[in-house]
């Protein structure tokens, strides 16, 4: 799978850095394998997103904390805020994942605009 594995202990720091997409997966999961085959192309199409694979067996506390109940699941964060979630029941097509990731980018931009409007510098 593409992306950069990150120890669960680094999760909180990483979600505050730009826009991150956490790909929750499990060994021997056919749906996870389907998503894994698509990730290199998706990473190339969405270079502003940082993808991080997480094996659910290696990070049970993080899985519980985020309420991951099925795999594959993708959870997107921007500046520390959860902004989107793609759950395992969703069809695993490239087009479906591209639509999800395009929406992640839109939400991240909208959140940036909202946060900029609320900053003290924006009111001056």
UniProtKB/TrEMBL annotation:
Coiled-coil stretches: none
Signal peptide: none
Domain Thioredoxin: 1-106
PROSITE patterns registered for this protein in UniProt: THIOREDOXIN_2
UniProt cross-references to InterPro entries, sorted A to Z: Thioredoxin-like_sf, Thioredoxin_domain
Protein name: Thioredoxin domain-containing protein
Organism: Hydrogenibacillus schlegelii (Bacillus schlegelii)
Higher taxonomy: Bacteria, Bacillati, Bacillota, Bacilli, Bacillales
